[in-house]
């Protein structure tokens, strides 16, 4: 293509048996991933979080625009502000915004409007999507932004689990308070709030079951 620069794709070839082995091992590891709401305050090294975010940054994106930004929040006062704002929105949701059907669907998960984990966990990763870039004050559009950021978040969650940590995809709605608390620029919109850390002592999770292969896939 004119104006494009290409390099050889380089990755060691492996046998079909090894392909199967690696895919099986990764599935075995990932099927133990669960959302957790009971975190420990045990520290997590900056280097670990850096590696997790760098992994998320390897996700594909529309026109390779990489329309994401990850904010790591450790400061206790900032996390307190985030918790207060999130709980305000969550209280409104649980007491009027959500439909009765929605509330019934949440009951098996044991979720409530209080979110103490936002202050207990050692780090929050706030994911922002960028509908456009600002280059010398000029808007430059990004493409397939929601799809691209969604893919990056999937990579992020997998990297968190692979590192031996736990997380939660927290989505207080609306989330505009995150832009204000973190003083983010106008071209960034909050997408996900993800507590990251170790599970707390006595941590419990709902006894849930995932859909079978036949329920989620069809061969043609």
Descriptive account of the structure:
The chain is an alpha+beta fold and about 220 residues long. It has a single domain (about 35-200), classed as NADH Oxidase, CATH 3.40.109.10. Helix content is about 40%, strand content about 15%. The chain contains 8 helices and 6 strands. The strands form 2 sheets. The protein has a 4-stranded antiparallel β-sheet with strand order 1-2-6-5. α2 (about 45-55) packs across α6 and α3 (about 75-95) runs antiparallel to α7.
Outline of the structure:
The protein has 220 residues and is α+β, with helices and mostly antiparallel strands. The protein has eight helices and six strands, in the order ααβαααβββαβαβα.
The shape, in one word, is globular
Beta-strand portion reads 5-15%
Number of helices: 8
Through-space gap between termini: 33 Å
Number of strands: 6
Radius of gyration: 20 Å
Order of SSEs, N→C?
HHEHHHEEEHEHEH
- Spans of at least 5 consecutive residues with low confidence: none
The appropriate CATH architecture is 3-Layer(aba) Sandwich
Main sheet makeup: 4 strands, antiparallel
Structural class, by secondary structure, is alpha+beta
Per the CATH scheme, the topology name is NADH Oxidase
- Averaged pLDDT: 95
Can you tell me the CATH class?
Alpha Beta
Helix content: 40-55%
Provide the spatial order of strands within the biggest beta sheet: 1-2-6-5
**CATH evolutionary superfamily:** NADH Oxidase
The figure for the number of domains is: 1
